[in-house]
Amino acid sequence: MLTALLVLPAGAAAEPADDAETAVRAQLGRLAGIVAACRLPLAADAVALRSLVARELRPEADVLHGAQVVLGRHWQDASPVQRRRFAEALFGTLVARYASGLLLLTADNVRVLPGSETQRDGTVAVQLEVDAGLARPLPVFLHLRARGGRWVVHDARWEGQSFLLSLRRVYAEQIARRGLERVIESLEATAPGKLPPPERRATAAGRCLLALESV
Fold it and tell me: How confident is the model over 86-102, as pLDDT tens digits?
C-alpha cells in the first residue's frame, strides 16, 4: 500500500519549513527514479525490494519515537532493551508488509503540494496528493521534525487518521491479550533479518541497482 509506505521516507538537510517540502520532493523523486529503472527486476526479487526500502528509508524514520507512540502507556512498562527490540522489529515488519507498495510509485502519482505548516508540536506538515486508483487523489500529510540536521518523519495522516495511532490500537489489543514480550517475539519472527545491500544480490534486481549506482 503506497500510502502506508509514505510514513517511512523523507530526509535531507533541515530547517525552515519550506525545506521540508524540498526534502520530501527530492526523496520521492529519487525513489521514483530507482523504481522506474528497476521496477520489473525488483518485482521479481522480494529480498532486494525489502533491502532497498530498508536502506533508503531507515535513516529517515525516527523508529524509536514511532515505537513510543505505538506502545503508548506500555512504553513506561517496557525495559530499554524491549523498547529497542520493539522499535526495530516493528520497522522491519512494516518494511516486509508494505515494501511492494514502492513498486506503485511513479514520478507523477505522488505530488508534494506547496504550503507546509509548522504544527503546535513543532513538526512540519507536508501535504501530498496520492493517486491511488480512487475517484480522486488521496490527501496525505507527512509530519516531519528536524533532527541532527535532517528531516525525519514522525507520522502520516490520511482520511483524518494517524498511521501510528492506528497501529497503537492494534498492538494495545495484542499486548493486553498476550503480553509485551510475546508480541515483540512475534514481530521479530516476521521481520526480515539483516538484509544484504540490494545491489550485491546476484539477481537481475541486484545488477540493475548496481548499474544505477555507477551512473
Answer: 999 999 999 888 899 99
Please check the confidence at residue 33 and state whether its pLDDT lies above 90. Answer: yes
Provide the greatest CA pair distance for the chain.
Answer: 52
Q: What is the pLDDT of residues 156-208, one digit of tens each?
A: 898 889 999 999 999 999 999 999 999 999 999 988 778 889 999 999 999 99
Among candidate residues 127, 144, 163, the one with its CA nearest the CA of residue 1: 163
Single out the residue of 109, 89, 96, 112 nearest to residue 182, CA to CA.
89
DSSP for 52-81 reads HHHHHHGGGB-HHHHHHHHHTTHHHHS-HH
Cβ neighbour number for residue 96 with a 10 Å cutoff: 17
Question: Cell numbers of 115, please?
Answer: 504550503
The structural domains of the chain, ordered by start, are 2-213 (3.10.450.710)
Question: pTM for this structure?
Answer: 0.84
- The DSSP secondary-structure symbol of 101 reads G
Cβ neighbors of 177 (< 8 A, separation 6 or more) are none
Cell (9 digits) for 47: 529480498
Q: What is the DSSP string of 155-211?
A: EEEETTEEHHHHHHHHHHHHHHHH-HHHHHHHHHHHS--PPPPGGGSSSHHHHHHHH
Cell of 5: 509506505
Query: Would you state the pLDDT for residue 82?
Result: 97
